[in-house]
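Hi R.,

As promised on Friday, here is the backbone we talked about, encoded as structure tokens. Could you run it through your design pipeline when you get a chance and send me back a sequence?
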């Protein structure tokens, strides 16, 4: 929701109360303000409709109270923090002797950047409603006497913290605790909050856990790099849904009693223990093995609930005789796997199958799962596919870098929608019978075959050519359904006679393209046009299609804009590094919202507000010395919201519109 919308709604509520004769308590109005503020600033990391509540607080005492009651503030406490902000909760408000009615600030999120926690031994008003509390990396203090905010939900410790926790009284509201790099002390006697949902240990933690009394509502448990303790005697809570073991863990798991609700189990790099005899939980959905795992899977009774199984780099075991669970949907093999799969009985439920870098086995006799929808081959796969019987349900097929085999006689599944060829593929396609269902077709770096006479599928929507492709397209009928067409770096053929499909919405040319375009017959539906790299042709008189929304020029373009007829729908124009032409020689459409100018542009922008009155975002990646000249006496567009400038550019002293956000990129 935009700030203006919120303001209108709140104002409308205020007016409604006045007209209806409501008592002038403003309670309903302020209740709405508090709800809106709490919803807008509740989740960390989200972008809100306001940058801060400072302006709202200045509107009235009642709004100030509402804003501060919402506790939207992120307070960073360091040696420069005024002591009055750290006043105890039961002390009179600052300035009370003057009779002020302005309430004190309350923070929702706190970053404690002090090396001591002494000031936390009593309740602090500004921190009393904090939900997120983060200690800095420098803090390594005893926390036994800390009085925690009663609403605290998330607590994070920094890298140096490594103090006993047995005497720490965590608040009952706490839902997540994250320890930093250095914490490595016993936790058997720690009293965890009963409602704790997530517990994350850092790099150094390596303490016994078999006698730990875990919080009964714990959902997620993560062990860091160094953890390598026995877990067979651990009593994990029944509520646990996810366990992640780090890099060093390599203990036997035979005999481990897993939680009955466990859904995700992930082992780190060094884990390489036999699986025979492991009693997997019946709820397990995802099982992940790290890079060192290379144990036989035969004789392993995987849970019937398993949906996803992922192997790491080193796994390279035969799969014949493996009892796959009937529920399995996804299997991914790592870089070293290179075993025959012709005799493997994959489960019929399998929908995604990924082979890693080294896999290079025949596919002609493979019985693919009936439900398979996505199949990916790794970098070294280069086997014949003519004669392969693909799964009838297959929708996406990807070949890796090395694949370069004939495909003219290949029989593709009728359901295939996306087909990707890798770096080395460079085979003729004139005689290929593409499936009628194909929507996306991608050729890799070395593909450079003539496309004249290709029988494109009628359903094709996206066609991408790699860097080397440089074949004529002006005598080639392209599929009438095409919506997106991308040419790679080397394409540089004339296009003024090309009959583009009317359905094309996006057309991208690569770095080498530099052909005349003024007489080009552009697709009637085109919304995005990109010229990259070397393009530097005259565009005066260029007839662009009316639906065009975005046009982008590469770094070498530097031609006059005089006489260019921009379409009335245009929203974005991007010029590259060399562009340095006057902007007032052409009529800009009122629809223009975003303009990008690069480092060599140094023409006047004085009339910008008249040329582009509705511009919302302006990017000026210019030399620092140029900025001051072109911004002097500029007439800013009234709706400009964002100005992007290079890092290091200082705009102090420049007169900027109120509310303009300046971003250094």
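Update: got your reply. Pasting your designed sequence below so it's all in one thread:
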């Amino acid at each position: 929701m935009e700030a203006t919308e919120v303001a209108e709604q709140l104002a409308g509520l205020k007016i409604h109360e006045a007209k209806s004769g409501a008592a002038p308590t403003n309670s309903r109005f302020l209740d709405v303000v508090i709800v809106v503020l709490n919803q807008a600033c509740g989740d960390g990391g989200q972008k809100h409709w306001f940058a801060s509540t400072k302006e709202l607080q200045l509107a009235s005492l009642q709004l100030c109270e509402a804003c501060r009651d919402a506790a939207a503030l992120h307070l960073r406490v360091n040696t420069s923090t005024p002591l009055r902000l750290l006043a105890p909760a039961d002390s009179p408000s600052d300035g009370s002797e003057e009779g002020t009615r302005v309430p004190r600030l309350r923070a929702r999120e706190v970053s404690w950047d002090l090396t001591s926690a002494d000031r936390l031994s009593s309740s602090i008003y500004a921190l009393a409603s904090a939900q997120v509390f983060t200690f800095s990396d420098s803090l390594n203090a005893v926390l036994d006497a800390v009085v925690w905010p009663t609403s605290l939900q998330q607590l994070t410790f920094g890298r140096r913290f490594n103090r006993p926790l047995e005497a720490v009284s965590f608040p009952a509201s706490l839902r997540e605790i994250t320890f930093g790099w250095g914490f490595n002390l016993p936790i058997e006697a720690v009293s965890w909050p009963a409602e704790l949902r997530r517990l994350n240990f850092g790099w150094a933690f390596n303490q016994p856990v078999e006698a730990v009394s875990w919080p009964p509502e714990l959902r997620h448990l993560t062990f860091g790099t160094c953890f390598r303790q026995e877990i067979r005697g651990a009593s994990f809570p029944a509520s646990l849904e996810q366990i992640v073991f780090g890099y060093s863990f390599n203990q036997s798991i035979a005999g481990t009693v897993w939680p009955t609700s466990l859904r995700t189990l992930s082992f780190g790099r060094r884990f390489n223990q036999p699986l025979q005899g492991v009693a997997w939980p019946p709820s397990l959905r995802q099982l992940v093995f790290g890079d060192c795992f290379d144990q036989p899977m035969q004789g392993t009774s995987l849970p019937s609930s398993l949906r996803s199984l992922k192997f790491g780099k080193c796994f390279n075991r035969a799969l014949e005789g493996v009892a796959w669970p009937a529920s399995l949907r996804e299997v991914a093999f790592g870089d070293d796997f290179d075993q025959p799969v012709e005799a493997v009985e994959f489960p019929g439920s399998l929908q995604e199958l990924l082979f890693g870098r080294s896999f290079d086995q025949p596919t002609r006799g493979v019985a693919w799962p009936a439900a398979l929808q996505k199949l990916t081959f790794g970098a070294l796969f280069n086997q014949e596919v003519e004669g392969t019987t693909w799964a009838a349900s297959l929708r996406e097929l990807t070949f890796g870098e090395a694949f370069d085999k004939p495909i003219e006689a290949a029989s593709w599944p009728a359901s295939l929608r996306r087909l990707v060829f890798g770096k080395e593929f460079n085979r003729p396609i004139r005689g290929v019978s593409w499936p009628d269902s194909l929507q996306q077709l991608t050729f890799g770096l070395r593909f450079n075959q003539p496309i004249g006479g290709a029988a494109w599928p009628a359903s094709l929507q996206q066609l991408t050519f790699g860097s080397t492709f440089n074949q004529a397209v002006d005598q080639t009928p392209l599929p009438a359904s095409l919506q997106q067409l991308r040419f790679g770096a080397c394409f540089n053929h004339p296009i003024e006679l090309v009959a583009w499909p009317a359905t094309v919405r996006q057309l991208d040319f690569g770095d080498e393209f530099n052909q005349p375009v003024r007489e080009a017959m552009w697709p009637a539906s085109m919304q995005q046009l990109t010229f990259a790299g070397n393009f530097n042709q005259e565009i005066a008189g260029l007839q662009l299609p009316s639906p065009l929304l975005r046009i982008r020029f590469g770094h070498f373009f530097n031609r006059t804009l005089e006489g260019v007829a921009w379409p009335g729908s245009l929203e974005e124009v991007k010029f590259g590094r060399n562009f340095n032409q006057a902007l007032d020689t052409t009529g800009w459409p009122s629809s223009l919202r975003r303009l990008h100018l690069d480092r060599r542009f140094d023409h006047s922008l004085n009339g910008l507000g008249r040329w582009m009155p509705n511009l919302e975002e302006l990017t000026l990646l210019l030399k620092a010395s140029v900025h001051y000249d072109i911004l002097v006496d500029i007439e800013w567009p009234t709706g400009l919201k964002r100005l992007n400038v290079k890092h290091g550019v200082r705009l102090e002293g420049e007169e900027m519109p109120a509310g303009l956000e300046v971003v250094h990129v």
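One thing I noticed while checking it: The chain is about 10% helix and 15% strand.

Thanks again,
M.
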